[in-house]
Amino acid sequence: MNSKRLLAIVVSVSTLALPATSFAQNLNITRSILPDQPYTLIYPEVMVASGPPGGPITINHPNAPLQCDLTIVPAEDPNWSAEAAVSAIDRDAVTGAWAETFPGFALGETGTKSYQDATALYYEGTSESSSMDVPITLVHTETVRENRGYALDCIYATSVAEQVRPAVEFIIANFSTRSDADCCVGATPEAEQAPPQ
Questions:
Q1: In this structure, are residues 54 and 29 in contact, taking their beta carbons and an 8 Å threshold?
Q2: Alpha helices in 88-142, H assignment, sequence order
Q3: DSSP 3-state assignment of 163?
Q4: 109 with 141: CB under 8 angstroms?
Q5: Residue 13 pLDDT class (50, 70, 90 cuts)
Q6: pLDDT tens, 159-197?
Q7: CA dihedral for 127, 95, 156, 161, sign (positive or negative)
Q8: Which domains does the chain have, with CATH numbers?
């Protein structure tokens, strides 16, 4: 399910030890093997994916307080659209739901973002109290395709937003509800790496 790309991609992704700048970064691509739950998740090679087929997928950064979770659930609203979902968002309900996990959660910006093949509802929020013992920022995106609901949530320490937010935006922009999506939105391919001698 996991395959490493040999193509170096110029992506603005950073770790705590690196300044926020563009540099060549190898990527991992995780594709669904289940025909009823297709997706393509593209993320920096340093991040590690875990989760069972058919269950939530989590990608973690080993050197930075960054985690993203992908969940796919059945969806029964044939008229769902990201734009309508943004217009109908219940700020109190969203705040209350996340406050159970992140006490003091405050909902911020809402809108839409683009996946590779779909438009997603987007919102972000912050919490001063979390299990990470530091203030966190949550970036939530979701869409519905062919009776499937896709939710992609990324959580990171607010103090390192400048360093990790580019990686979050890259992961969101390159997510696809298809299992055969290409890489990569917002990246410029460099020459292929030469094989080791």
A1: no
A2: 91-99
A3: helix
A4: no
A5: very low
A6: 999 999 999 999 999 999 999 998 887 664 443 344 444
A7: negative
A8: 2-192 (3.40.1000.10)
